[in-house]
Specification:
The complex is a heterodimer. Chain A is α/β, with parallel strands linked by helices. Helix content of chain A is 35%, strand content 17%. Chain A has 7 helices and 9 strands. Chain A has a 7-stranded mixed β-sheet, sandwiched between helices. Chain A has a two-stranded antiparallel ribbon with strand order 1-2. In chain A, helix 6 crosses helix 7 (247-262). The longest helix of chain A has 28 residues, at 33-60. Helix content of chain B is 66%, strand content 3%. Chain B contains 18 helices and 2 strands. Chain B has a two-stranded antiparallel sheet. In chain B, a hairpin with a 5-residue loop joins strand 1 and strand 2 (286-291). The radius of gyration of chain B is 21 Å and the shape is globular. At the A-B interface, helix 1 of A face helix 2, helix 4, helix 8, helix 9 and helix 10 of B.
């Protein structure tokens, strides 16, 4: 692998320097130790500063109302999104108590362009105006309301989702079927039947009427009491825009709202 | 060989680069935007303003969103705004390949032949005319490789102060576009460390490690500033990166219209093993581009590789090219996820390098006529295949056998005009 340059005792690798490298530059010069140390310190310092600054910048961007307002009942997904936006929620961890995951694209989320120029669009405006029950959590994620999501579903609903997921070969299903981790291009949502350990930063709670198709208000309150979490914003969505949610479920949601108001906040 | 390229080399390389530019830019305005082209613009705006890398290529790194945001601020949603950087980087790949191969093989002629092959390559042309960022990543990766080779050829000189950090900067920008640059950067740091180790030069080794480790990482990290604006902290960023890699490695949704032709191992074994890109204008007219290589070039890659490996003299001369070709190609061959022809953009400069070096060596042995004859045939056939690269694949009857390789575009449907 090595050859010797004629007239010079120095050996040159095939990956090594050229024959016409100026002779005066050969031999123990290189970048020099002072440059190497200075360069390394500069890059190391820039990296540390960037890491700390980005971490602090991110944390500072999380916003939620203080003090926590009382639970807020909305009629449908559009009202829910308005409530989150009016309250100034941004970058929160959202816990969605539900049966329906609400993570489909809203209609028209990806516009078409058949010619030049491509029209300027802020897609967040498109998402907000076309939000519906089947896309509400997706829109919350894509408009910056929720930086992460945990779903709490009834155990029966969870086992249904696990069965469907296994049938379709979806990844992320725990071997014991106790949870599903859904990875949407890096945006990870956790689906389970209990409340998570305390996430960092402000936490918003949304309770969807679809949960009460099989769940009960009392059962939910028990789950909430057993959880150490505190919430910056609590909403209850009657989901009148969901045709497969029966009125009985909405009545149970209303009852849950009453119980929540009576509940002593943590 | 001379450290600096001569005037003759620079002139010919410039002419080849101009040829590459013409082939990439010609009739670009008549090609309507593909779905990806439009989404590149919308993703750039959504990411830069709100930290959301969606709708296109959300599982890839994010630098394209920032750079295309700048170009769309300058030129709006026009061809130049959306595809300007692809046209620029796709053209510059031609020149940088020439410079890289010249230095790696210590042969001007090899560099010029490699640049010529890249200039004419159909896959390079197709993706230089698309808004998506494969050629952006490839440009930075090839640039970083060239700077690494320059550093290796200038051991023990102060040039390392520039070449090595600039190589790290290039690899960082490349990795922030797509991960094609990562295996090349890993090989680069190994070679630079080997160079420093054999010279017992701690300072050079330290600069190599910092330049190709923390420096590219810093660049990559900074491209996520808009993402942090969504409220994430550093630990969440680390988890997000792991989730992205998971999403990237399991990405298997079929490309529009066609599932097959997704194994990199067949690129240099089968003729016309390509990928389709479709644009439809307001009149429902289909503009089909087919990204396929010229078989006279692509099918010559493995024989050239074999010659280079088997001939001791050629192997010594091509060592760096062989190593970088392996780093660019083998990860794509051995990955379990589908790999389409667009990823060949990352391999072709190195494949062309080996071909260029072998052809140059053969031309010295058998006379220049060999080189001129091969170059002429490649030029003519590439021009015959050129309509495939510019959205005109359906306009020429003689190209139909190639079109049928990539999809059912010749079966009439009601809602499109062919």
């Amino acid at each position: 692998m090595q050859r010797t340059r004629q007239g010079n005792a120095r050996t040159i690798d095939v990956v090594g320097c050229d024959a016409d490298t100026p002779p005066h530059s050969l031999g123990a010069t290189g970048v020099g130790i002072r440059f190497a140390v200075g360069f390394s310190l500069a890059i190391g310092l820039a990296l540390v500063i960037s890491l700390v600054a980005l971490d602090r910048f991110g944390v500072a961007e999380r916003t939620a109302p203080t003090p926590t307002p009382p639970p807020f009942v909305v009629q449908d997904s559009r009202e829910l999104l308005d409530a989150w936006n009016t309250a100034g929620l941004h970058g929160v961890h959202l816990i969605d108590v539900t049966r329906d995951l609400g993570y489909a694209y809203p209609p028209g989320a990806i516009p078409q362009s058949t010619g030049w120029p491509v029209p300027h669009k802020d897609l967040q405006d498109v998402f907000r105006t076309s939000v519906e029950h089947r896309s509400i959590i997706w829109v919350a994620a894509k408009t910056g309301v929720a930086r992460s999501v945990t779903y709490v579903v009834m155990p029966t609903d969870l086992s249904d989702k696990v069965s469907v997921g296994r049938e379709k070969g979806f990844p992320g299903i725990a071997p014991d079927g106790s949870s599903i981790t859904a990875n949407d291009d890096g945006y990870v949502r956790l689906i389970g039947d209990r409340f998570p350990a305390a996430p960092t930063g402000p936490v918003a709670l949304n309770i969807d009427a679809s949960y009460f198709v099989s769940g009960t208000p009392e059962g939910l309150i028990e789950l909430l009491d057993a959880s150490p979490l505190t919430y910056s914003f609590v909403t209850l969505n009657r989901s009148t825009d969901a045709t497969d949610v029966p009125e009985a479920a909405r009545a149970r949601l209303d009852r849950a709202a009453e119980l929540l108001r009576q509940r002593v906040p943590k | 060989m001379r450290t600096l390229p001569g005037k003759r080399f620079i002139t010919i390389l410039a002419l080849i680069t101009v040829l590459g530019a013409v082939l990439r830019i010609a009739w670009i305005g008549s090609q309507p935007p593909t779905a990806d082209d439009a989404q590149v613009a919308w993703t750039a705006w959504l990411y830069t303003l709100h930290g959301q890398a969606w709708p296109t290529m959300a599982h890839h790194p994010v630098l394209r969103n920032l750079t295309v945001f700048v170009t769309t601020q300058l030129f709006g949603g026009s061809v130049l705004g959306v595809k300007g950087l692809s046209l620029l980087f796709g053209t510059l790949i031609v020149a940088v390949t020439g410079l890289l191969v010249r230095r790696a093989s210590r042969d001007d002629r090899a560099g010029l032949i490699a640049a010529f092959l890249v200039a004419l390559d159909g896959v390079q042309i197709v993706y230089s005319r698309q808004g998506i960022n494969d050629v952006h990543a490839v440009f930075f990766a090839v640039l970083g490789t060239w700077l690494t080779v320059e550093a290796l050829r200038a051991e023990d000189t102060r040039s390392w102060r520039w070449f090595v950090p600039l190589a790290g900067l290039s690899f960082g920008l490349g990795a922030a576009e797509k991960f094609y640059a990562v295996p090349l950067a890993a090989l680069a740091v190994a070679l630079l460390l080997y160079s420093a180790w054999k010279r017992r030069n701690v300072a050079d080794g330290l600069v190599a490690v910092v330049s190709l480790g923390p420096l590219p990482f810093l660049i990559y990290l900074l491209t996520y500033i808009p993402w942090f604006g969504r409220g994430y902290d550093l630990s969440e960023w680390a988890r997000y990166q792991a989730s992205l890699v998971d999403a990237m490695s399991t990405f298997s949704r079929p490309a529009v219209g066609f599932r097959a032709n997704n194994k990199a191992m067949w690129w240099f074994l089968r003729p016309f093993y390509g990928h389709d890109e479709v644009a439809i204008n307001a009149s429902h007219q289909v503009y089909l581009s087919v990204a396929v290589g010229n078989p006279l070039v692509w099918l010559a890659v493995l024989p050239a590789l074999g010659y280079s490996l088997l001939s001791a003299e050629q192997r010594r001369r091509d060592t760096l090219l062989l190593l970088f070709f392996s780093a660019a190609y083998l990860p794509l061959v051995f990955t379990s996820r589908p790999i389409w022809a667009l990823s060949a953009t990352a391999v072709i400069p190195f494949a062309a390098g080996i071909l260029g070096s072998v052809i140059s060596a053969l031309s010295r042995r058998f006379g220049r006529r060999v080189m001129w004859a091969y170059g002429s045939i490649v030029l003519v056939t590439s021009l015959l295949l050129y309509p495939l690269a510019i959205g005109r694949a359906l306009d020429f009857a003689y190209l139909r056998p190639i079109v049928t390789q990539v999809g059912d575009y010749l079966i009439p449907s009601d809602d499109t005009v062919r």
